[in-house]
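Researcher: Can you fold this with pyridoxal-5'-phosphate in place?
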Amino acid sequence: MKASRRSFLSVAIGAVALPGSLPAHSVAVSHDSSFDPWVEVHRDNLLSNVREIGKRVSARPVLAVIKNNGYGLGLVNVARMLEPLSAIEGFAVVKFQEAIALRDAGIKKPVLLMGPFGESEMREAVVRRIMPMVYTPVGALLDRAGRSRGLAVPIHVCIDTGIGRVGVPHSEAAALIRQLTSYKSIRIKGTMMTFSEDAEFDKEQLRRFQLLHRALEEEGIALGRKHAASSFALFQRPDSFLDMVRPGMAMYGIYSEQEFRRAAVMDLKPAVSLKARVAYVKRLRKGESAGYNRVYIAKKDDVWIATLPVGHSDGLPRVAVKGARVRINGNLYPLIASVSASHSIVEIGPEPLVMIGDVATIFDWLDGSRPEDFAASCGASVYDLTMHLNPLLPRRVIV
Ligand SMILES: *Cc1c(COP(=O)(O)O)cnc(C)c1O
């Protein structure tokens, strides 16, 4: 398919003129409609990362965090690829609509809803076997939803041991849990916490979590699977692996910190790429400008530039012009001027070395450009990179 598109394009462009002889403002029109940027998903890498995590955690079950459109890879894509693996216990999302979308797509494994919900969502969740994460006194509400359908209501209780976000404060958790267990239809399938990722304080958080467990277990209260470890803890805190781990980023093959990559505790391979095709190539005469506010000016000489039809609304960070480069035909070119909503501009140099239709790789493991490096090159956070990929971009799963 790639070959045929290439040959089509060279025919289309050849009909106008060869790139070397293109005048400054020439246009070669292609009737191929696939100029939309796209996301590639490397299935084998995703599966390999899950195996790496399995080794690291001595085969403990993995609750796969696939919130925010599967970190950009595509919610249902990721769930379908992971569901057959025995290592995958289930899935965790934050938005109610994502939980529903998983069931609509036929995903059968447990789904944990880590985000808030109202009463009508709760009734739907019970029917669709979506487990809520609970940290407020909603026992009566859940019990009512369960009993009206004759269904048990499995839940995970979220304990705030110091992150100060959601979760019942650890000092009030025992009372809430006792109350929740007094309802007939409620089943506590798990208790969970989130680290603040401060090396010293994490220890204290884990101690609080374990103290709570001990106290409740002495009362004979079963707390289900205990889980705390996100990607960060997979690297830093083997003592927090407990009964299950809860990674996101590491599964997608991305090191959340550069030091984790150097430490080589796990060999992670990025499972997500962003690509686009050159939409336009032109020469700027010396003194001409590119971008809003004329932010880029061809100061010294004439320069060839290429426009990519990918912008910040697609997930390309605005800061990409502060040092990031894209690869076209094997060469790296800097992003220049400004990233607008749907476009970005690449500086090619004194020669027109690229053509309309050429593939531009923003980041792709196969080309040796990891999302971590792309983010680092322009001072972006890698968490802002993949999770901001526009859900409407096509996802091409490479198998
Ligand atoms: C997002 C999230 C995770 C996964 O975090 P990563 O850093 O991507 O591994 C785990 N737990 C909770 C509660 C989360 O919101």
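Model: Folded with pyridoxal-5'-phosphate in place. Confidence is low (pLDDT under 50) at residues 1-32.
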